[in-house]
Amino acid sequence: MEQTRGGTLGGTDGSEADRGVDALTPEETVAPALAPAATTAGGIPAIVSGLRHAVGETGLYRAGRLLLDLNQTEGFDCPGCAWPDPDHHRSVAEFCENGAKAIAEEATRRRVGPEFFSRWSVAELSRHNDYWLGKQGRLTHPMVLHPGASHYQPIGWDEAFALVASELNALGAPDEAVFYTSGRTSNEAAFLYQLFVREFGTNNLPDCSNLCHESSGVALGETLGLGKGSVTLEDFDHAQLIVVEGQNPGTNHPRMLSALQRAVKRGARIVSVNPLPEAGLIRFQHPQHPLDLLGKGTPLASLFLPVRINGDVPFLLGVAKTLLEMAESRPEIVARDFIAAHTEGFEAWQSAVRAAPWDALVARSGIDRAGMRALAELIASSERIIFSWAMGLTQHRNAVDNIQEIVNLLLLRGSIGKPGAGTCPVRGHSNVQGDRTVGITERPAAAFLDKLKTTFGFEPPRAPGLDVVESIRGMAEGRAKVFFAMGGNFLSATPDTELTARALRSTRLTVHVSTKLNRSHLVAGRTAIILPALGRTEVDVQATGRQLVSVENSMGVVHQSRGSLHPISEELRSEPAIVAGLALATLGARSKVDWANLAGDYDRIRELIERVVPGFEQYNRRVREPGGFYLPNGPREGRFDTRSGRARFTIHPVPEEPLGPGQLMMTTIRSHDQFNTTIYGLEDRYRGIGRERRVVLMNAEDLRQRSLRSGQLVDLTSDFRGKARIARRFVAVDYPIPRRCCATYFPEANVLVPLDAVAEKSNTPAFKSVVVTVAPSEGSVPVHPDLHGEAAARF
Ligand code: SF4
User: What would the pLDDT profile of 597-614 be if each residue is shown by its tens digit?
Assistant: First the structure.
């Protein structure tokens, strides 16, 4: 079996541009500090933690100003997740602990300028993890890493644009460049960016959606005619049943807990379907409600079903089969009128579900028939049901099937297209949905390209471009030679870390538009450039004065965002200004677009979006209304824009047993001190794990079977199509997770995720179902110097 050197690589792979840089995060594992997992989310610890980060990074005055502006109708949008704000009334503190951490990270007083880069070589920086790099501060100047150089050096904006332009214009074809987008980018910047990229001549526009909710988009598009969720925030106030599946809102979308708490208080039931019990779904103390803080808070999920990792298809099939059996004596369970009027494929789906064998459904899901029946009873007795999910469903080989089985259940009950009912995929990055809406996609619709052509007078490329996985492959094989990233931390966000590093290093140029330093700046092409961008918190002044930008949240509301802080450096540029500068340098007189004019007044960009993208009528007026405006949403309005005009029941096979003897199914997870690849701190407070992120959470029985003990140092090996990938020196931790399952933190364990292991149809990497084996590692866990033996005593 071929082996890659996951944990022991030491960094150099001998490629032209490695510069002695470590591709993988350092392995200096120390003993984690362990405490019992929390059973309540929010409360005073959330207030303390949020304020500690905000005040610690920005100071009392700046923190106060920022927090009062955060998520207000005239303020700036949280750069964290895409959970919506209330349409009308906003409280004084309209944010969560992690929102406070997100702005602390951006508004920090620390700086990473030319002196920093002259002190540290890229090789030295690569010995540090993303947490350390992020804590160094905000990037202040454009920087360049010349071929063979060991250190980044300052470069002027014009010179940087000219350098990028000369590399782009020297390519054999526009398709040899890749233009990545992270979900922080505003609608205005994203529209301008895709316009430049398409006028340049390629659809190579991969984005972070390829890594997270692509499966939701595909699944919902095929069945309901729109690749977005159907519910609004207000629907949570009308639902009778809310099923939260494959999602940990307490950490990843904390303000969702307020909506769940309100729902419970008026009598709705909440069900949690997830391999791990998460504090946020057990009990919640609202940090802004004094009575909650004095009491014990509100119990949320009344039913917890610990499904096996990627056991959701057999589980949902089991629930459907139970409902169909119940319907034999209670025919009203099947919403016959709705099904006849609005759907297709019901009879075939019903036959397939009835034929699914019970023993396989129970064994593969890990939930017994009583558990399935418990959820089926709740579904049967509810008219208004919301299913909410996140990456626990979208990052598996059969991720699209997961979501389509949810759609089947909602259609069975006619629970869509009416208040309090529908689909709720919760997006992880604040404008990942909006970027897609305004054209960031490698597979644009023909109608969108036609509009670009008539509006701007150039012929946009029609061939599909590369998504994230295909881009990595393209770079590794030498087909893609320039990599440009509008935000994000590509190396840490993607699977197969070593292969991704090799891919980036084999390019002629890597360019990152960034606010903070990260590992992607270090694993670079032959030449590398960092372009420092304004953050959401900062005032954006262009030729016509102060600008606002807009974003779209998870529920299709487009609203404005305006920063209030003075930019931390005069050298920063806004993302629209950076795109315009790049386009002018690259396309020059051959462009049909007046770039300087657009960058000088974002209202003009919005006028163009209005002309190209349906649903943005009177964009400039409506985006200035408090709370913004809703985009059209067919399924919400009871309209299904599929080919037949009907919502579709879809049939999926019962998955085969994925594990062989001795194997475990590994999922990657985020800690509570983390937002995507940004690590705010080292405390995963709700799970009771601190100081060390190289841990693997395992069931006690699985530890015992392998003669391992909690606290022992282990190596993890994933085996995919005959190739082994190894992550060394993780600490095994006894945790309540289903048998034959284990969990590790993203991105430390990404080295184990094969690039070729992807979701069918959506091509999203299967970060959450990796088959691994766990074996003792050599050596022992050094105790952290601060612990004085305390941690050792816990094991
Ligand atoms: S719930 Fe999400 S968007 Fe809202 S404040 Fe928290 S991190 Fe920001």
Answer: 999 999 999 999 999 999
81 CB near ligand 1 (under 6 Å): yes
pLDDT band at 81 (very low <50, low <70, confident <90, very high): confident
User: Given CA atoms 111, 116, 122, 124 in this order, what sign does their dihedral have?
Assistant: negative
Cα–Cα distance measured from residue 476 to residue 505, given in angstroms and rounded to the nearest whole number: 8
Q: Give the number of the atom of ligand 1 that is nearest the alpha carbon of residue 100.
A: 5
Place of tokens 């824009």: 641
Tokens for 138, please give them: 């905000």
Q: For residues 638 and 230, is the Cβ–Cβ distance under 8 A?
A: no
- Residue indicated by tokens 């999926």: 652
Q: Tokens in use for 684?
A: 């995963």
The mean of the pLDDT values for the chain is 93
Higher-confidence residue: 307 or 675? 307
CB 80 less than 6 A from any atom of ligand 1: yes
What number does the ligand 1 atom closest to the CA of 81 have? 2
User: How many A from CA of 251 to the centre of ligand 1?
Assistant: 10
Enter the tokens of residue 672. Answer: 């509570």
- Cα separation, 552 vs 565, in Å, equals 22
Q: Is the alpha carbon torsion for 633, 637, 638, 644 positive or negative? A: negative
CA neighbor of 220 nearest in space, from 406, 32, 377:
406
Residue nearest to atom 3 of ligand 1 (CA): 81
DSSP, collapsed to helix, strand or coil, labels residue 19 as coil
Give 765's DSSP letter: B
Q: Using alpha carbons, select from 211, 140, 126, 208 the residue that is nearest to residue 523.
A: 126
98 Cα to the center of ligand 1, angstroms:
6
d(CA 766, ligand 1 centre) in Å: 25
**Pairing mode, strands 741-745 and 695-698:** antiparallel
String of DSSP letters for 615-676 = T-TTHHHHTTSTT-EEPP-TGGGT---STTSSEE----PPPPP---TT-EEEEEE--TTEET
Establish whether residue 361 lines the binding site of ligand 1, counting it when its CB lies within 6 angstroms of any ligand atom. Answer: no
Burial of 540 (0-12, 13-18, 19+ CB in 10 A): buried
- Quote the ligand 1 centre to 256 CA distance (angstroms): 9
Whether this prediction's pTM lies above 0.90 is answered by yes
- Which stretch of DSSP H or E encloses residue 564? none
> 79 in ligand 1 pocket by Cβ < 6 Å?
no
CA 33 – CA 344 distance, rounded (Å) = 54
For residue 782, what pLDDT band results from cuts at 50, 70 and 90? Answer: low
Q: Alpha-carbon distance 33 to 763, whole Å? A: 37
Ligand 1 pocket check for 254: Cβ under 6 Å? yes
Report the helix count and the strand count for the chain, using DSSP H and E.
Answer: 31, 35
Q: Tens digits of per-residue pLDDT, 460-489? A: 999 999 999 999 999 999 999 999 999 999
**Ligand 1 atom nearest to 675, measured from its CA:** 7
Whether ligand 1 lies within 6 angstroms of the CB of 428 is answered as no
